[in-house]
Amino acid sequence: MPDWQTVPIREVCEGIFDGPHATPAPSESGPIFLGIKNVTEDGHLDLSDIRHISEEEYPHWTRRVEPRAGDIVFSYEATLNRYARIPDGFRGCLGRRMALIRPDESKASGSFLYYYFFGGEWRSAIAQNTLIGSTVDRIPIARFPEFLINIPSLPTQRKIAAILSAYDDLIENNLRRIKILEEMAQALYREWFVKFRFPGHEHARFVDSPLGRIPEGWQIKALGEMAQTYRGRSYRSADLADEGGLPFINLKCVDRDGGFRRSGLKRYVGQYKDSHIARKGDIVIAVTDMTQERRIVARAALVPTVDRGCAVYSMDLVRIEPLPQMPKVFLYGMLRFSSFADDVKQHANGVNVLHLAPDRITDFEFPVPSHDLMRCFAGHLVDVLEQIDVLENQCEVLRRTRDLLLPKLISGEVDVSELDIAAPEVVGV
Asked: Most buried residue among 32, 320, 372, 396 by CB atoms closer than 10 A?
């Protein structure tokens, strides 16, 4: 395209900085020490699990650069090609193996650069310059400023960024709505079955039980008395493919602290049994954790709408199938919002990988309300879960559309230079 030019990235940046090559003493509070684990594959900061540095040490760790809103942080060693923008209100420093790009907004749109880093041209440049090490791969930061980028005029950059940002804004809005719905579901469960303020509780009598005082008529049951467990499919790398087969639910599909992550789905083309199949509304629980944080093991997730109508699930998961007297939606609420995960995860063990015996799941005891009360709760929760599923489906469509558009836009294949209004008129989802 005539208004596009190829320049070293340093020409459109105020600066490029790498982080410290050491780790500060841990602190229980204070500014954030931003690590690779805090940058997601899809380009966002995940601050749900952060490390802090003390206020006293903060000036030392920000002598070279202090991240500010609009900066683009990225990983340059071990786990490569992770990029995210620093949001308003962030206060912290770069961690090890992290670097920062500060765009010069008079020459390049920071939003355009952020999207550019997810395109094929940039990924190819990174691959060509990556140093392959015996233990980890590394992008040479000393040469990084000379890496070439192909960019259009500033107005065209802004139009491209506006189109792609419109999709991300819609996704972000849906995610906020999903979070609110999940908080509503959790609050309802705890109100009824933890605080015992269920409909009609004013007239209930309470009696002693092995788990403390519970409403009269409720029974203490082990999970194994109310549900059956099925172990997932053992698989080889040859059983996985980029396309075809069935969706494959694996450990990456379980979000930290519970819930389903569609971005973790893979494709499975191997053999399986009927017991290895999960469908929409089925409950799966992680019995493996690749970290020592215990944020995934014993966490439950509800299988969403998937293509082909069903999915194979891996041996790192168990499927929980309630018996007829136990409404599935109530069971999911208990597994997600009670003390189940925190109690059961303590039984996981292992040196490098945590493993949880399924018997530890079925041994868990909890108070079982009357069938009518469980059905009443399930009736409220099922509507919330259906709304969440619809919103997640919308997010998936938006992500696919954005990802199809992105390489065409940032390469100039699609010309936006003549558009007067970029985002509202182009984004029609």
From this structure: 320
